[in-house]
Write a structure and sequence with these properties.
17 helices, 6 strands, two-stranded antiparallel sheet, Glycosyltransferase, single chain
């Protein structure tokens, strides 16, 4: 860019010369920076491009590593395992039971004469953990003792001549406590095999006892989970019975896994026995009789006179005094009642009769027979509630009473007709009534013969008749389920009143029928035909 400059006139008068000053073009700072660095960038970029191209070229000449071929060989990573922990003894593990197909480990043609494997140590205090200590019970001495004038409200004078022991009461020829001798040892094994039980039935019993023991309360009682939840006496008596049937008592011996369980239960009953012979908190004669059966069986199994004779005799005496005018028992003492209540009283009196230490009034059985006659069918093969209208549920109750009170055996025509009536309603999946099954199973078992084989083991020609044993085993809740070892409440009064606890107790007693009571009679060859009586 040029800038004109005005020249002064020359002195000589010539034209003035023009002088131009040329200036460099003005540049910005960015332009100067670019001019300075562009050559370096261009050179650097060219070098890098050349370097990259060289590397690519070299890579093309390098040997390639192929993909790894697949192999059929599997590689397993093994971790060192921790050494197994030493298993701890678990006394509540169910015994696998017996297998009816295997020969007996001990050959014995007769039943054991004792019902425990070793001598009972009477001075041993079994104790119990986490259970309220039993309070001493103010009870009087047994009949005939100089220490008392009354037992259960009946005076010693009244007892003279009116009580009978063992064989003389009820018309049975059985000896005292003989009926309870099949619950342990070789006798139990032989009875399971001969009666139709097996390892599965015994395992079901073992699992059921574990569950039932877990439901015992801290004070030693049990509680129904149905509408009768308030009756702890009935629940405790009913739940003790399956343990007793399995040979478990409050005494210490080799095979007694539930000594503390039974001790706590019997302590609860004795602790709640009043001087009059009734139980505190009992709902009535139902509960009273069930608890009395438990006390009688425990006495018959152990012979614990010091602990059990006096309270048990009181409870028995209360039943005797509570009989109604027509020979039945009602819900309350002294009232007339029905066949259902009578059934439990007869079971209690029969259990007492088995104990040589106890006395049972003959007249009580005679009066009960009169009531049974009044509710029996034309051939005395069926029984009603309080009249002659036949009841499926109560017929086996009446028949069992006849077996115990009248001595009816398999040769009795009425018993034969009654069993034939029961066989019309054998165990079936569509009929869920444990009260009926509890009584009917005992009656058919004592009757024995082909009827029992079909009732217990089922009818191979009829899938609708699975048999009592297998049906109960199938219905028991198996391991892995909640309440495994128990049975769901049945659809009868037991399920509604006694719930899962009561249903489980009766289910166990039904599976223990093989050895719970020895039969009063044995069906011999050719004895299938009933006599004319």
């Amino acid at each position: 860019m040029s800038t004109p400059v005005t020249a002064r006139p020359s002195p000589d008068g010539k034209a003035a010369a023009v002088i131009r000053r040329v200036q460099g073009a003005q540049e910005t700072a960015a332009q100067r920076l670019l001019k300075k660095h562009i050559p370096a960038w261009v050179i650097s970029g060219a070098v890098h491009v050349a370097l990259i191209a060289t590397l690519i070229l070299l890579d093309s000449f390098m040997p390639k590593v192929g993909a790894e071929e697949k192999s059929d060989t599997e590689i397993t990573v093994v971790q060192d395992e921790k050494p197994p922990e030493e298993s701890k003894e678990n006394l509540t593990n169910p015994d696998v039971g017996l297998d009816a197909e295997l020969p007996s480990a001990v050959e014995s043609d007769v039943m054991d004469t004792v019902n425990v494997e070793q001598e009972i140590k009477k001075d041993l205090d079994p104790g119990i953990e986490n259970v309220v200590t039993a309070q001493p019970v103010n009870v009087t001495a047994p009949p005939g003792s100089e220490m008392t004038a009354t037992v259960g409200g009946i005076t010693s004078d009244q007892m003279n001549g009116m009580f009978a022991q063992g064989p003389s009461a009820g018309g049975s020829s059985i000896e005292s406590a003989t009926s309870l001798r099949g619950r342990t040892g070789a006798s139990k094994e032989a009875l399971v095999k001969s009666g139709g039980g097996n390892s599965a039935s015994e395992q079901a019993v073992a699992a059921g006892l574990v569950w039932l023991a877990s439901k015992q309360k801290q004070d030693g009682s049990w509680q129904f989970d149905g509408t009768s939840a308030s009756d702890r006496i009935a629940a405790t008596g009913m739940c003790l019975l399956p343990f007793l049937a399995a040979g478990q008592t409050h005494k210490a011996f080799k095979e007694n896994k539930y000594q503390k369980t039974v001790e706590a239960g019997v302590a609860y009953l004795i602790r709640n026995l009043q001087p009059t012979g009734t139980f505190t908190g009992s709902s009535g004669m139902y509960a009273h009789a069930i608890a009395t059966v438990a006390l009688c069986e425990l006495l018959g199994m152990t012979g614990d006179k010091q602990r059990l004779v006096d309270p048990t005799q009181k409870a028995v005496n209360y039943i005797i005094k509570a009989q109604g005018p027509n020979g039945s028992w009602g819900y309350g003492a002294g009232a007339n009642g029905d066949t259902s209540i009578v059934g439990w009283q007869i079971q209690a009196l029969h259990s007492a009769k088995l104990c040589k230490e106890l006395k049972v009034q003959k007249e009580t059985f005679e009066n009960a027979r009169k009531f049974l006659d009044s509710v029996a069918g034309p051939k005395k093969e069926t029984y009603g509630y309080a009249d002659r209208s036949p009841s499926l549920t109560l017929t086996p109750v009446g028949l069992l009473c006849r077996y115990y009170a009248d001595g009816w055996g398999p040769n009795n025509q009425s018993m034969a007709a009654g069993v034939a009536y029961l066989m019309k309603r054998p165990p079936a999946d569509n009929f869920n009534n444990m009260y009926y099954y509890y009584y009917a199973t005992q009656v058919v078992h004592f009757y024995d013969g082909p009827e029992w084989q079909k009732w217990n083991g089922g009818d191979p020609a009829n899938k609708a008749m699975p048999g009592m044993r297998d049906m109960l085993i199938a219905k028991q809740l198996k391991e892995g389920k909640a309440n495994h070892g128990s049975w769901d409440p049945d659809s009868s009064m037991i399920g509604s009143s006694c719930g899962r606890v009561g249903t489980t107790a009766l289910s166990l007693l039904t599976l223990e029928v093989y050895y719970r009571h020895l039969p009063l009679y044995r069906r011999e060859s050719g004895a299938d035909k009933p006599d004319e009586k």
